[in-house]
């Protein structure tokens, strides 16, 4: 399954990534970073299609999706 990676130091809690996710694979978490910004987190990564829209729209390069290698 694909995995979400967040850099909490870069994230400003705008949650644009969550809005951009077509599969609702990620959502707002109950974690905040040291600045008090709400961090996104995995919600249902079964729904992640690997589109990387979350990465593309993040203004702060705070989020990345690691795509699981296809098993042959
Ligand atoms: S990861 Fe990026 S787009 Fe998502 S909440 Fe943090 S700053 Fe905003
Ligand atoms: S890669 Fe696409 S489907 Fe997966 S979490 Fe990011 S926006 Fe959602």
Question: What does this molecule look like?
Answer:
By secondary structure, the chain is an alpha+beta fold. The chain has a single domain, classed as Alpha-Beta Plaits. The protein has two helices and four strands. The protein has helices spanning 16-20, 53-57; strands at residues 3-6, 26-32, 38-42, 63-66. The longest helix has 5 residues, at 16-20. The two termini are 15 Å apart. Bound molecules: iron/sulfur cluster (2 copies).
The structural domain count equals 1
Judged by helices, strands and strand pairing, the structural class is alpha+beta
**Counted beta strands:** 4
Give the rounded overall mean pLDDT: 96
What ligands are attached or bound here?
Answer: iron/sulfur cluster
- Most strands sheet: 2 strands, antiparallel
The level of helicity is 10-25%
Estimate the global geometry from the Cα principal axes: elongated
Question: Which properties best describe this structure?
Answer:
72 residues; alpha+beta; Alpha-Beta Plaits; two-stranded antiparallel ribbon; 2 helices; binds iron/sulfur cluster
Give a quick precis of the structure:
The protein is of the alpha+beta class and 72 residues long. The chain has a single domain (3-66), classed as Alpha-Beta Plaits (2-Layer Sandwich), CATH 3.30.70.3270. It has helices at residues 16-20, 53-57; strands at 3-6, 26-32, 38-42, 63-66.
